[in-house]
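Input sequence (205 aa), recorded before submission:
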Amino acid sequence: MQSIPLIDKSLKDRLRSLCPRIVLASQSPNRRLTLEECGIEVMVRSQDIWEICGLTNPPDVVTMLSKQKMDSYLNSSLFNPDIVAVAADTLVSLDGRLLGKPRDEAEAREMYAALSGRWHDVYSGMSVYIPGKKGFEVVSDRSRVRFTELTESIVDWYISTGDYKGAAGGYRIQRNGYRLIEEIEGSFSNVIGIPLERLAEILGR
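Predicted structure, token format:
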């Protein structure tokens, strides 16, 4: 892509009016920054969970992991019942194969070779706690992403940015990763790791 996609201003304004403050039960700096760009005050309460759930269907995996993070937060000493909270998890799926965070540069290169010139799916699961409501709501979202044909020089450059570290599928679209992408179908914020459209939908009910 020639330029990074932008989150619609009307969506940002709606989220800020619905939820001026939020607890993020995740250590993801990308999710925190995305919420802060909407003008929301974010309180990070990261949860240390064992990110293995025994499931293989991508929507089930990401929703289960988001539920585990939310359960952990709600049962912790940090839980504030008066503030909206959100937990999320994101995975990349290529032909049914789940691509998590690459362990090292070599694994990142393997991912780029597999993703080059092809469509893949990005799934995010999200759990949302709303004060005064029993329990919490769990949703998932999917976006389709097509990579450009990746040359060796492009891959070398992207590896040099360090963006692949700690990123599902080995790329961060909101940093330099958009340069690897030809086309997106669905939510841009979902590719970042937090589907803002779904969040606004839940908060607005």
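Checked by second reader. The longest strand covers residues 119-129.
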